[in-house]
Amino acid sequence: MDSSQRKKRTIGEIRESKKSGEKMVYTSVPDYTSARWAEMAGIDVAVVGDSLAMVAHGHPNTIPATMDMMVLHAAAVRRGAPNTFVLGCMPYQSYNTVDRALANATRFMQDAACDAIKPPGGNSQAHILKALVDAGIPTAS
User: Fold this and answer.
1) Paired residues of 116 in beta bridges
2) How far is 69 from 55, CA to CA, in rounded Å?
3) I need a labelling partner for 21 at 20 to 30 A (CA). Which of 13, 58, 68, 80 fits?
4) Which SS3 state, helix, strand or coil, does residue 48 take?
5) Are 41 and 29 in contact (CB under 8 A)?
6) pLDDT in tens for each of the 141 residues of the chain?
7) Which segments of 2-92 are extended strands (E)?
8) Coil, helix or strand for 32?
9) Are residues 29 and 46 in contact, defined by beta-carbon separation less than 8 angstroms?
10) How far apart are CA 88 and CA 114, in angstroms?
11) Long-range pairs for 72-75 at CB < 8 Å and ≥24 separation?
12) Sheet of 85-89, strands arranged across
């Protein structure tokens, strides 16, 4: 089947795969061309991670990744892989308060057409994750 006929995975399918043990293919996808190849290869989830600060911009670590950078790349990935689930990862300090997390996650959803966002963090970030979910923003980890 060519990639234009494939059915995009849903957040429900991704959550269920964690319970059922179904294997899904996730790959880091920083740009349009990589997204085209990833979709042709049939990957399930295109992850737009802050590692793109290193692989696409030559920084020594992920700290310089900004929301502007992430949204720009995520939008390019969406255009390159319209039938693939796109997961936008929140960069450093973009989710350190509830208000900031909501505003930045909304940018991923509205400006880049991501299917879900991923705010890193543990128990100390639980209130932020809850606020995102309560606001109807699909989240994945």
Assistant:
1) 87
2) 13
3) 80
4) strand
5) no
6) 555 567 899 888 988 998 999 999 999 999 999 999 999 999 999 999 999 999 999 999 999 999 999 999 999 999 999 999 999 999 999 999 999 999 999 999 999 999 999 988 778 888 999 999 999 999 986
7) 26-28, 45-48, 85-89
8) helix
9) yes
10) 6
11) 73/30, 73/31, 73/48, 74/48, 74/108, 74/112, 74/113, 74/114, 75/111, 75/112, 75/113
12) 26-28, 45-48, 85-89, 116-118
Cβ-Cβ contacts under 8 Å for 111 (sequence gap 6 or more): 71, 75
Only one residue has tokens 């700290």, namely 63
**Which amino acid appears at position 54 of this protein?**
M
| Structure tokens, 90 | 């929140």
pTM, two decimals, is: 0.92
